[in-house]
Amino acid sequence: MKKLSNIVLTAMVGLASVSVTSNAIAEQTERKQTEYNRIVAMSPDVADIIVALGGADKVVGKNAVNRNPALKHAKAVGRHRNLTAEAVIELKPDLALGSYMVQPQSVYQRLNSLGVKAVNVAPKEDVSSYASSIVQIGEYIGKEKLARKTARKWLSGMSRKPKTGTRYLLSYDGRHVAGRGTVGDVLIKRAGGINAASSVSGLKPMSREGWLEAKPDVIIIAEHNIPVIGSKERFVRRPEVAVSPAGKNQNVLFWSANDYLRYGLNTPEVVDRLHKLSK
User: Fold this and answer.
1) pLDDT tens across 196-222, in order?
2) End-to-end alpha carbon distance in the chain
């Protein structure tokens, strides 16, 4: 009886596997065979990929923070962190694409239930999901060959650099830092460095004691927050910064927040820049 149960269970697992595989193949076939010409790019990462692959003319809607000149013709549907299905539907799209950045995530289900195909091409915030999203988007806009080439090049550029021992502290505003499990954490490690904010999990404020213990060699802050912290000279005079190697050497830089708080097509270049800072 136990042997029969095992046989049945094995058969069920096999059927489930076939079902999942069949669904994936069907979805991929649909992406390749269906022509989409009215696309809403709900998140900035997706919008950038569509533009890079030559599909800007297919985009009718974008998130409100998108500043890509190639999408100046597209109407804003709101901020990706607070989207509504109704705002997307107003543009009568035949496809809505986004990633984990879109909030609330329930907007995907809502759009599909209202008859608008909505796809989360990158449900997870990790390297493999971003590379996969490039390929998926390419299939939806008829640029499969270019997309696969782009994804391969991107992944190659994300290869780990030799370890340097350099301690990096990536901060949003001089208070919130990119701790364990963040994009910044991954970039630092890929650049061969050490995340000085590893005592923190996620993107969170770090205490003054935490800053003192971090002892960063390099501090990078979002450039749009310069008015918040003042000049570099003022920032390095903070007691918790002044005693660090970065403070003593005034090794404080201001970069675009998008460079190290999310993945983008330029992320391999960001890894290279981080690595070169150790020299």
Assistant:
1) 999 999 999 999 999 999 999 999 999
2) 67
Q: Do domains 33-157 and 167-276 have the same CATH topology?
A: yes
CATH code of the domain occupying 167-276: 3.40.50.1980
The domain 33-157 is placed in CATH, from the list 2.40.110.10, 3.40.640.10, 2.30.40.10, 3.40.50.1980, at: 3.40.50.1980
* pLDDT per residue as tens digits for the range 27-52: 555 555 588 999 999 999 999 999 99
Domain coordinates of the chain in residue numbers?
Answer: 33-157, 167-276
Tell me how far apart the alpha carbons of residues 68 and 188 are, in angstroms, rounded to a whole number: 27
pLDDT exceeds cutoff 60 at 25: no
pLDDT of residue 267 exceeding 50, the answer is: yes
Q: Is the pLDDT assigned to residue 126 strictly greater than 90?
A: yes
Cis peptide before 104 (omega within 30 of 0): yes
